[in-house]
Every structure is written in structure tokens, then in C-alpha cells.
């Protein structure tokens, strides 16, 4: 498996680089891959002097200031949502769990809406959106787990129903806050969170989601054995040395932090955390040593292409990326519900 994993990882990494290059190329103004990489490499201090600057100022602005940060953000958000979905599915041992379905995204959206419309956490400046979205997602996740506990254990059936109920309630709260706004700009900004978009991507906002993603990815990957043991059941996991209560809290905090930060910069983008982990498990099995990194790569590729399609499908207008992911995730979700023989271990 190690050799297969390395080959698959390198292949997906190459596909991700190619996908990002193509995504930067396409748009209302087309640019060649040669110029894309010339502009990017010219920003690296060590080699910039060896790059012949034969592109126009407008091409540099389009490539470096507009498209490159957006495509990179798409890769980060896609990868982050994918590993968040994989972690949640292992945590609750349910194949249809993901941040969107369990209400985490809706909680983050409420937090972001409160900042945009009501000015909450304004004293935190540029960090207000991320902090508020994180607190919203953490509150939603905690509420869902509280409602789904039966006899000290998490009931899968109650978990899904609680997630749906909490999601509906939080969506209603977001809509209520939206109705309070008399500013057209504020209403448009809130619609950004509800439909999902990467149009606001800038280099300045990439640092926080990139750092949080790297930290959460590393912690999940380092704890892949504990994630694997969770799939065996609560009693088996405890018997084999997992501090279940502590590990659950850690996972909840990590997933809420990651989801909240990603929603803060991209809006509510659903189904990525549902689709990608399943596809990965069909390829590499249920070992999270492989599921986590492959999910990150495949999630990044998926959202880069979803964003590219959203930009060009109804050009010159832009379609919210959440619509694209819903078109992909909805049928996949239905197929999953009808496929009774699916298991976490399939593909081993």
C-alpha cells in the first residue's frame, strides 16, 4: 500500500498543479500557461532575476492579483472541507455525516452574518469574521452532540435529525439577521455566505485559512490510528487505549475551527466533505493514514474545478460555487442512501 499511496499521492499532486494552472488560465481574458508560470516564478526572490519579464502589466494583475489567490483559496477550502468530512465520519461512524449536514457550516454562517450585519466582534478587526465563524460552528457542533446523546452514547439517528434541525434553526437565524439589514451592500454580502463564493479572494486573507488547514491536517494525520480505532466502535476504541471523551472533544474543536475559518473566507459550500472521503475510501480503503492526505488532494482538485466552472458557465456572470457542489453532491447523496452495502472498510 505504501508504494501505491506514494504513486497516487504524486499523481494527484501533479493533477492539482495542472488543475490550478488551467483554472488561472481560463476566464474573460485568456492567458497561456507559459505566462502563468513566468509571473508566479517571478515572485520568488531566488529566481526572479532569471525570469524574462515579457508580459504586460494587465496580464500580471490578472494572473497574480486576481486569479492566483482565488485558485489557491479554492484548493485550501476544498482540501479542508474534505478532511473535515473524513474526520466527522470517523467520529460518529456514519457515512453520511459532514460539516454541512451536521449544521456546522450553518453555525459558521450565523457567526459571519452577525459580523457583517450587526458588527459583532468588531474590536478584533480583520480577525472578527474568522473568530465569529469559529464560535458559530463550535456552538452548532456542541448543540448537535448534546441533542444526539442517549444514555451516554451518540445515537446516529438522533445525530442526523439533530444536525438537520439545528441547521434549519441556524439558517432561520441568519435569514432573520438578514431581514434586519436595511443596507443593500450588507444583504449582498450575506448572500455570499449563504451561496458560497471565492470572489473575495486576496493574498491578505489566505494566511489564516492556510495556517489553520496545515495545523489541523497535521494533527488529524498524526492521530490516524485513533481515527481508525473509532471505526471499531466505542468499546473497542476504549479497550485499545483511546481516551474517547478527550479525543472527541479534540476532534470537535479541530473540525469546528477548520470549518469556521473556511466558511469565513468562502461562504457555506456543502457536500465536499461528503463526496470526497467516500471516493477516497473506495480507492485506498478506510485507513486514515491514507484517507486524510488523499482526501486533501482530491478535495483541492474538486473545488478548483468547481470554482472554474462557476466562473465560466454563465460568463460574464458568476455562478455561486455552492450551486455547483450541490449539483454534484445531491445525486451522490441519493446514490449513497440507496447503496446499502457501503461500509467504511470497503476497498481494503
UniProtKB/TrEMBL annotation:
Membrane topology per record: Multi-pass membrane protein
Subcellular location: Cell membrane
Alphabetically ordered keywords of this record: Cell membrane, Membrane, Transmembrane, Transmembrane helix, Transport
Top-level taxon of the source organism: Bacteria
TM regions (residue ranges): 71-92, 99-121, 127-147, 159-181, 201-222, 251-284, 290-314, 321-338
Classification via InterPro entries: ABC_BtuC-like, ABC_transptr_permease_BtuC
Keyword Transmembrane: yes
Family: Belongs to the binding-protein-dependent transport system permease family. FecCD subfamily.
Matches recorded under PANTHER family: FERRIC ENTEROBACTIN TRANSPORT SYSTEM PERMEASE PROTEIN, PERMEASE OF ABC TRANSPORTER-RELATED
Protein name, entry field: Iron ABC transporter permease
Origin species: Lysinibacillus zambalensis
Amino acid at each position: 500500500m505504501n508504494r501505491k499511496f506514494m504513486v497516487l499521492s504524486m499523481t494527484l499532486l501533479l493533477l492539482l498543479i495542472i488543475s490550478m494552472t488551467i483554472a488561472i488560465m481560463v476566464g474573460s481574458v485568456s492567458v497561456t500557461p507559459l505566462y502563468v508560470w513566468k509571473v508566479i516564478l517571478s515572485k520568488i526572490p531566488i529566481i526572479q532575476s532569471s525570469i524574462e519579464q515579457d508580459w504586460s502589466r494587465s496580464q500580471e494583475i490578472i494572473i497574480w492579483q486576481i486569479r492566483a489567490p482565488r485558485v489557491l483559496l479554492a484548493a485550501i477550502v476544498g482540501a479542508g472541507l474534505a478532511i473535515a468530512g473524513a474526520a466527522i465520519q470517523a467520529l460518529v461512524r456514519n457515512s453520511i455525516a459532514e460539516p454541512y449536514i451536521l449544521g456546522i457550516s450553518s453555525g459558521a454562517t450565523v457567526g459571519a452574518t452577525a459580523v457583517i450585519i450587526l458588527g459583532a466582534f468588531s474590536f478584533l478587526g480583520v480577525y472578527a469574521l474568522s473568530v465569529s465563524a469559529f464560535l458559530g460552528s463550535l456552538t452548532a457542533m456542541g448543540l448537535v452532540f448534546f441533542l444526539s446523546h442517549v444514555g451516554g452514547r451518540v445515537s446516529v439517528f438522533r445525530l442526523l435529525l439533530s444536525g438537520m434541525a439545528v441547521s434549519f434553526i441556524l439558517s432561520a437565524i441568519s435569514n432573520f439577521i438578514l431581514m434586519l439589514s436595511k443596507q443593500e451592500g450588507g444583504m449582498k454580502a450575506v448572500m455570499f455566505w449563504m451561496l458560497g463564493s471565492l470572489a473575495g479572494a486576496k493574498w491578505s486573507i489566505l494566511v489564516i485559512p492556510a495556517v489553520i488547514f496545515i495545523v489541523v491536517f497535521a494533527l488529524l494525520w498524526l492521530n490516524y490510528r485513533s481515527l481508525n480505532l473509532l471505526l471499531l466502535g466505542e468499546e473497542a476504541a476504549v479497550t485499545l487505549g483511546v481516551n474517547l471523551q478527550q479525543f472527541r472533544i479534540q476532534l470537535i474543536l479541530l473540525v469546528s475551527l477548520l470549518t469556521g475559518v473556511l466558511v469565513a473566507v468562502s461562504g457555506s459550500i456543502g457536500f465536499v466533505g461528503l463526496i470526497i472521503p467516500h471516493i477516497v475510501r473506495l480507492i485506498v480503503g478506510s485507513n486514515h493514514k491514507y484517507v486524510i492526505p488523499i482526501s486533501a488532494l482530491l478535495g483541492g482538485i474538486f473545488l478548483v474545478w468547481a470554482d472554474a466552472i462557476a466562473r465560466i458557465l454563465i460568463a460574464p456572470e458568476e455562478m455561486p460555487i455552492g450551486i455547483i457542489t450541490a449539483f454534484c453532491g445531491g445525486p451522490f447523496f441519493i446514490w449513497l442512501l440507496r447503496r446499502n452495502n457501503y461500509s467504511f472498510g470497503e476497498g481494503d
